[in-house]
């Protein structure tokens, strides 16, 4: 997020990240600072909120354009179904910023994004494993095909323009109750005939997200666990571009 405090200053950039990798991200950014006068520091006095307007995509005009206690209040840049991102000082009065809002549980947020197939954080996008196009980042304003150059830019651009993407992250659901112990990340997913369909990434309750081969995504799927076989099904998110859903 760009934070323009005044026209006389350089813009401040606020980065949102997975808190579990805060230190490694700071070290990575400082590698590229070189000799520029750039200050990189965490903001422990801020809190992040997701504002989700029920099950239907929201209209940004229904939220106040600015509020004294909100540092950032903007549509989620990834997808309309994710509502808005709100960043405010810790302890801010949320009902004053968004009248009529109700504070939910963080697990409600994770369930919502798993239902929509939106990956987030290192559990869903393990570093060194997750590929940008397979993770649908081109649908989430996460990849630029006009700027250059960045690490992996040539391979990412070539794959995009060739249009050959055989695996994608998809939302999955379990018709029955999933194991109480959960499903380990990376667990192999098979078709009923025993073909390898992909791997489970993460989930919340009966919802989750998995990297699946598109050729098998519409088939009945299962996961074999010690002493149990868990059935699941995948779906194509309605917010995807129509051409990608085919």
Automatic annotation (TrEMBL):
GO cellular component: mitochondrial matrix
Pfam families the record matches: Beta-barrel_CAF17_C (PF25455)
Major location (coarse): mitochondrion
Presence of the UniProt keyword Disulfide bond in the record: no
GO biological process: iron-sulfur cluster assembly
InterPro entries: CAF17_C, TrmE/GcvT-like, YgfZ/GCV_T_CS, YgfZ/GcvT
Statement: the UniProt record of this protein carries the keyword rRNA processing: no
Matching Gene3D superfamilies: Probable tRNA modification gtpase trme, domain 1
Compartments it resides in: Mitochondrion
GO MF annotation: an example: transferase activity
Domain CAF17 C-terminal: start-end pairs: 166-242
Keywords: Mitochondrion, Transferase, Transit peptide
Name recorded for this polypeptide: CAF17 transferase
Biological source species: Cinclus mexicanus (American dipper)
């Amino acid at each position: 997020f760009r934070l323009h405090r005044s026209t006389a200053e350089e813009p401040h950039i606020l980065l949102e990240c997975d808190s579990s990798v805060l230190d490694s991200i700071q070290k990575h950014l400082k590698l590229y600072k070189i000799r520029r006068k750039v200050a990189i520091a965490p903001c422990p006095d801020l809190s992040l909120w997701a504002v989700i307007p029920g099950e239907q995509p929201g209209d940004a005009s229904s939220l106040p354009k600015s509020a004294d206690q909100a540092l950032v209040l903007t549509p989620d840049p990834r997808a309309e179904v994710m509502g808005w991102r709100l960043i405010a000082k810790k302890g801010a009065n949320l009902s004053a910023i968004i009248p009529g809002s109700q504070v939910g549980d963080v697990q409600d947020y994770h369930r919502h994004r798993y239902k929509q197939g939106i990956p987030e954080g290192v559990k869903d996008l393990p570093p060194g494993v997750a590929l940008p196009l397979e993770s649908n980042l081109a649908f989430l304003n996460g990849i630029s095909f006009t700027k250059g150059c960045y690490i992996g830019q040539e391979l990412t651009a070539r794959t995009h323009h060739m249009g050959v993407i055989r695996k994608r992250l998809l939302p999955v659901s379990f018709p029955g109750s999933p194991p109480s112990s959960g499903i380990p990340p990376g667990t192999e997913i098979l078709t009923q005939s025993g073909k390898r369909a992909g791997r489970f990434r993460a989930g919340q309750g009966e919802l989750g997200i998995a990297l699946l081969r598109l050729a098998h995504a519409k088939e009945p799927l299962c996961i074999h666990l010690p002493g149990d076989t868990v059935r699941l099904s995948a779906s194509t998110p309605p917010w995807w571009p129509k051409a990608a859903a085919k």
